[in-house]
Write a structure and sequence with these properties.
The structure is a single chain. This protein is an alpha/beta fold and about 350 residues long. Helix content is about 40%, strand content about 20%. It has a twelve-stranded mixed beta sheet with strand order 3-4-2-1-5-12-11-6-7-10-8-9, with helices on both faces. The two termini are about 25 Å apart.
């Protein structure tokens, strides 16, 4: 396993008119972070130096032009471009959106080449990133295309993990995307992720129904009975502890989520509203199911406070922590997979400690 200080965390800078740069810089003002990883920010050192001045930050930045020039123990800034960018905090700009994607693409390429060990993405604006060269709703969809595996948005905070069956899909189209094959795929992805990335040997997974009261046995929609229920049963019969579909309205309020290692919501807001209510500012968005590691904070560009030095860096810092932790878990999982006896020993140790 790699030593902690040698873990290289790549950071895409996000929308420069938002709070992304601020939360990145604030995260690494805590010098203890550099004991955990070596950061590489994909941007431009002059621009970040300008933003640093607006924050009255004294964080030293080490500009580099190639990834092999990075220095352990420093905040490295890889110059993805050299020209100046017109930064207007809080403003929507197509030009700035293009630089956000330039940073993200460069960081993704470095991730694919194993030049960085994990990627943490600062927030983008989904409107100003659209172009002929980038026709994706956001980070997750692009990574799903570029990396191996099947991407799944998994929101994480302590023991609360909420995955999405469908993510950036209009509500009136959700049912079209909800097929038995998709449900099976998402459950299998969550199951494998919990084992590989979160050190949970026999995870329990809850699936939330699509319709009110999980369809009330077909009275309020057929999808829960005809799609979700059969798929969940197939997974259970295979030995995966999947349960549901559960009525979503009282699931979190009654504390049922605490009985499971992960919850899969049928659509975006069904999962994100309770998750952010319970954890806003501390949660992490993790792209599960891929061969590489990517995390991000649970908030957006926050244009309304950009440039005012008011942003809370807690969620971004948690995203860095989580990327490092998952990297370590994957290293352990791969090591154990080569030697199944170690897995058995680990299980016996857990039982003794219980």
């Amino acid at each position: 396993m790699k030593k902690a200080e040698s873990i290289i965390v790549g950071i895409s800078i996000g929308d420069l008119n938002g709070i992304g740069s601020e939360v990145v810089l604030k995260t690494f003002e805590d010098t203890r972070m550099l004991e955990l990883c070596t950061p590489v920010i994909f941007a431009n050192v002059k621009i970040l130096s300008f933003i640093k001045k607006t924050m009255n930050s004294e964080l030293p930045l080490h500009g580099i032009d190639r990834i092999d020039q990075l220095v352990v123990g420093k905040v490295n800034v890889l110059n993805v471009w050299k020209e100046a960018v017109d930064i207007q905090f809080g403003q929507l700009s197509d030009e700035v959106g293009a630089y956000a994607i330039k940073s993200f693409k460069a960081a993704t390429e470095a991730l694919k080449k194993n030049e960085i060990d994990a990627l943490v993405t600062a927030p983008i604006n989904k409107y100003n990133i659209q172009s002929e060269g980038f026709a994706f709703p956001g980070h997750t969809d692009y990574l799903d295309k570029e990396l191996k595996g099947d991407a799944l948005m998994l929101m994480v905070h302590d023991q609360l993990r909420v995955g999405l069956m469908t993510d950036h899909v209009p509500v009136n189209e959700v049912s079209k995307h909800l097929t038995e094959a998709r449900v099976i795929q998402k459950i299998e992805t969550i199951y494998h992720t919990l084992k590989q990335d979160f050190r949970i040997n026999r995870p329990k997974i809850a699936v939330l129904g699509l319709n009110p009261h999980a369809g009330d046995n077909g009275v309020i929609g057929k999808e829960d009975q005809e799609i979700l229920k059969p798929a969940i049963k197939k997974m259970f019969d295979k030995g995966i502890l999947a349960f549901g579909p559960y009525s979503a309205d009282g699931f979190f309020g009654s504390g049922q989520h605490e009985k499971f290692d992960a919850v899969i919501a049928s659509y975006h807001d069904q999962g994100l509203i309770p998750f952010k209510t319970l954890s806003f500012g501390q949660g992490v968005n993790y792209t599960a199911g891929l061969d590489k590691i990517r995390t991000s904070p649970d908030h957006g560009t926050a244009f309304e406070i950009a440039g005012k030095n008011q942003a809370d860096a807690s969620s971004f810092k948690e995203a860095v922590y989580k990327a490092i932790d998952i990297y370590g878990a994957r290293q352990e999982f791969q090591e154990w997979s080569k030697n199944p006896l170690k897995i058995k020993e680990k299980q016996l140790e857990s039982k003794k400690g219980a």
